[in-house]
Amino acid sequence: MSGDAAALSVAQQDRVFRPHGVVGASVEELVAELRSTGYDPLVSPVSREADEIRLTGAAMDPQAVGPGDLFVAVSGARAHGADFIATALASGAAAVLTDGDGAEKIREAIGYRTPVIEVTRVRDAAGPSAALIYGNTATSGPALFGVTGTNGKTTTTYFLRSLLDAVLDSHDQATGLIGTIEIAAGSETIPSKMTTPEAVQLHSLMALFRESGITAAAMEVSSHAISYQRTSGLFFNVAGFTNLTQDHLDLHGSMEGYFEAKAALFARSRTRSSVIIVDDPWGLQMAEAATGHVVRLATDDDPAAEADWIVTEVSAEALGSRFTLHSRRTGELIRCRTGLPGRFNVSNAALAAVMVLTAQERAELAFSRAEIISALEQADPFTISVPGRMQVIGTAPAAIVDFAHNPDAMIRTLEAAATASQGRTILVIGAAGERDITKRPLMGAIAVRMADHVIISDDDPHGEDPAQIRSALMEGARAALQDEALATRLEEISPRLDAITRAVELAEPRDTIILAGRGHEVHQDFAGTKHPIDDRVELARALRGRGYPTAPDAPDTPVAARPAATPRRDSTPEGGSAA
Ligand SMILES: CC(=O)N[C@H]1[C@@H](OP(=O)(O)OP(=O)(O)OC[C@H]2O[C@@H](n3ccc(=O)[nH]c3=O)[C@H](O)[C@@H]2O)O[C@H](CO)[C@@H](O)[C@@H]1O[C@H](C)C(=O)N[C@@H](C)C(=O)N[C@H](CCC(=O)O)C(=O)O
Ligand SMILES: Nc1ncnc2c1ncn2[C@@H]1O[C@H](COP(=O)(O)OP(=O)(O)OP(=O)(O)O)[C@@H](O)[C@H]1O
């Protein structure tokens, strides 16, 4: 989105990034739909005029409500949406969908002025309600490609979109994208608030996509989204699974709970086909749990016997890789490449390719196999820059900004660095506050096991004390240093800007610097206060400051200012047992 619109808040941008020609539904039609699907709605006030009110949009965030919207007021951990009824009404909300508590709050605040539809499961009902308003059905389009898994969602959706673009361009059709970094409808984009938006926004986006001539879209599906019913009422043409490793245990309680949340996406009622990477037992289990048409993809060196597609002939090419996709069923061989570093990007690229091939096989895309193969072999769709994902900022020393913020991603990123590096690996790492705390010591331990010099710093502390988060990482790192007699150098430096400067000061041209955890993010959140900092900008600045070369597309805009409220600076170089 450009011009004046770009100056709007994210919620305001959500409000204007909407379809225009929505036919909508009346309150009466919505209530009838909810009744017929078992939600047992109660409506007040019940009157002819109220029934005839036409709903032409839906929003859950009161700041994103527009005229004629259904305001979906949910009860949450921080607040009840109904507490914000005044904001929603001032913006033009025409009716409210809420629970008993919400209905009570609204009656107390405004009496019986606006129709209130009361159901017990508001989040469940939000998706089907929005689907009705925006005219979305299982076949209304666009062709939707959903990707879930602990790591690789963003990268795979960028790869998917790039491949779809390469094929659809010649058909004059555009593509969409919904994910952590941005929401895009063709060339129009807005920034994302969440990896997967709420159902009301997703349904609005489907209608916007259709209106904008978008025939295919790639979308990240987080486990939070599945648990919070954000994808309710949406139907995927192909759902893809990358992997399952430790993260988000604060929400899911256990790996089994986390698995169950993800598995819900691969049900016949939600997706027509599933493409599942079966490189580990979780993947194999996911393929067993999936119902409907399931395609198994193996991307490692020891492919599972059950795999339908395997990746073979992987070889290094510049910083990226070449590989061949082999269909065990038909014998088909397709040559692909990705310019992004790391073996995991071969997996992400293979998943994107097999998802599109599967959609074509199942006659869900109006283009031929030959067009996909030609795009794969000639358009190089997997050599693109994915913001903050293995993004190369400097070349000597190699300097990379990556989003790795959980144990498995760290291992894979540091493996990629070790393969590429001629010298030492210098790592800056932190952990986010108010998120899975059990991963912090694990991440500290992995850091000192796999890098040569580790600087523990801050990520987004959110409401937590940043020093405490660092200390949990340090604890894991120190224990590994001691127990495993490692020679890794370990420091704790805050703020992050100082940690970045220090990493560059330490580096020599043969070394590799990895700034992990923050990727594309441009603010750190300290208890609700946002401090501008972009790892990519600061790394490029520090490299240039020391006369080191930067990559051609390294940023040069001086975005970041030094944080206003700087947390404790605590630079305590520590050696491992041999240091
Ligand atoms: C755990 C979780 O996902 N919580 C989400 C959930 O919160 P909740 O149900 O507790 O609701 P709440 O925040 O109390 O708000 C209730 C209602 O009051 C409104 N409200 C609330 C507070 C306020 O100040 N103003 C306001 O209007 C809200 O818009 C909502 O309508 O619904 C809220 C409304 O949409 C989300 O903002 C909130 O996301 C929180 C902030 C969050 O951080 N979520 C992250 C963990 C998340 O979802 N991440 C995944 C990606 C994870 C990954 O793979 O890394 C994602 O898909 O983004
Ligand atoms: N297939 C993969 N397997 C393991 N690690 C990966 C994979 N793909 C990417 N990574 C690592 O995970 C990080 C995040 O990648 P990406 O943003 O593509 O995943 P994501 O699932 O969208 O993550 P998030 O949900 O946290 O945004 C990358 O920066 C990289 O370190």
From TrEMBL:
Keyword Cell division: yes
UniProt-annotated binding residues for ATP: G149, T150, N151, G152, K153, T154, T155
HAMAP family per UniProt: MurE (MF_00208)
Record's protein name: UDP-N-acetylmuramyl-tripeptide synthetase
Its EC number(s): 6.3.2.-
Protein's cellular compartments: Cytoplasm
Organism: Nesterenkonia lutea
MF (Gene Ontology): UDP-N-acetylmuramoylalanyl-D-glutamate-2,6-diaminopimelate ligase activity
Taxonomic lineage of the native organism: Bacteria, Bacillati, Actinomycetota, Actinomycetes, Micrococcales
Gene: murE
Binding site for UDP-N-acetyl-alpha-D-muramoyl-L-alanyl-D-glutamate: T195, T196, S222, R230
Residues modified to N6-carboxylysine: K262
Family: Belongs to the MurCDEF family. MurE subfamily.
Cofactor: Mg(2+)
Major enzyme class: ligase
Residue ranges annotated for the Mur ligase C-terminal domain, each copy included: 388-519
Domain Mur ligase N-terminal catalytic: 60-127
Domain Mur ligase central: from-to ranges: 147-355
Post-translational modification: Carboxylation is probably crucial for Mg(2+) binding and, consequently, for the gamma-phosphate positioning of ATP.
